[in-house]
Amino acid sequence: MSLRKNNKYRIALGTVQFGLPYGISNAGGQVSRAEAAAIIGYARSSGMRTLDTAIAYGNSEERLGEVGVRSWQVVSKLPPVPEGCTDVSKWVKDSVQASLQRLNHAALYGLLLHRPQNLLEAHGERLYKAMLQLKQEGLVEKIGVSIYETSELDALSGLYGLDLVQAPFNLLDRRLIDSGWIARLEQQGTELHVRSIFLQGLLLMGAGERPEKFGRWSALWKKYDAWLKDTGLSPMQASIRFALSFSQVSRVVVGVDCLAQLEEILEASDGPMPAVPEDIRSDDVDLLNPARWNGL
Length: 296
Description:
The protein has 296 residues and is an alpha/beta fold.
């Protein structure tokens, strides 16, 4: 399969590293203001149009506001509803208005829930109505959820209409396909953004670079490394082209901690994408969910 040229607009810039030191392979720490400005400028000139951030990403929103992102489509996320919150509607509106002020932006392209389970709790309907109200007021274009597992979509199905879903998806993590949700979201007209395409950098590491705790999946790594060698693809090329090869995916979110990384990702995005063997995959959440890695 050969990917379309000039599809850089489908690559969204993840900015968690602008506000926090993040990722298993991140050796540089939090991105400086000057580097953030250089990254944003290069991304814009390359045809990228979407930024992904969140209230929980440290001072990422402030950094973006300082750099200037008014011409961008910005997706941000609400943190979990605070315990004891008595006025969910006010909390939602105050949170979004504060985000917009930090971003120095008039409206969000997307507003997602970092904890979709909040919609299943006692205040779920009020939470959803508050997000809808912001959409009606023009402060938000699309509302939705950011998920870790497709079972979260199963739980919400039929209860709420979602404009946008963000989900993990990569060479090893094909739960969106196996569950049928990648097709269902397209049928429903729900925009799909995928993240974790490098599995926090783990998929970019060579055999001698992976931390010992991931040796539990040594058989899988051997197949992965052998396939890369056979195809002649770099881990970067394989990872970004795999995600872009699915027409159902509207945006592929990539996080970087320096300009050179973004340059490498964009260069790697164009070119042929061979079929991936069916046995290069996993359904083990201990591997697929980085939140569980500290327990390995």
